[in-house]
Amino acid sequence: MTKRQPKYRRFILKISGESLAGDQCYGLDYPTLKRMAEEIAEIHRLDVQVAVVVGGGNIWRGLTGSVGGMDRSTADHMGMMATLINALALADAIEKTGVDCRVQSALEIKAVAEPYIRLRAMRHLEKGRVVIFAAGTGNPYFSTDTAAALRAAEIHAEVILMAKKVDGIYDDDPKVNSSARLLQKVSYLEMLQRELHVMDSTAASLCKDNKIPIIVFNGAVSGNMLKAVMGEPIGTYLGGDNND
Fold it and tell me: What fold, for 10-238?
């Protein structure tokens, strides 16, 4: 019997900071961190190249700071530092599974992470290392979703897997509307026109222009990450146009 092969061989995994907090409101949940690291290692052992972009919302949100009166650039740089904390924690957990991992930061902090260099990142992936991209794009006013879209284009990733705390994209807020319907497939244009809050418009435009599909799924459920990589129907597929 032929063993089923993964559908994707190089992908970006986007993990929100909130996902790393587990059921907590703040900080890192170590069992969640360990589970995610083990799932990443399991996929990596299928000869798949895994790159990760992490958010920092479990520690600090730049937008929240700016609303409170802080300078937006300062607040956003603090948010970038929060993503680096999460990246280091995740890298440590991945290394403990026996998989080599490298953290590359868009902000230069040589004591704890490599600077982001595209060709070096691609070489790490080819050498069988997981690469975690931290500090977003290194610029204020850009989200980590935009960083995921940018890095995916730069390293020629086949897909972005977006691990969230919801099952996918709904036609309405399921927390408010119990009749909200989970959408199996959404085009980039439809997402923008209907203002479905999956990612910001800059990130969506980058993915649309570079024809990078996105799979939005519930990262809190064990095994969902592997299902997405194997091409099993899960969550919501975002990409293409309405005729695809």
Answer: Carbamate kinase (3.40.1160)
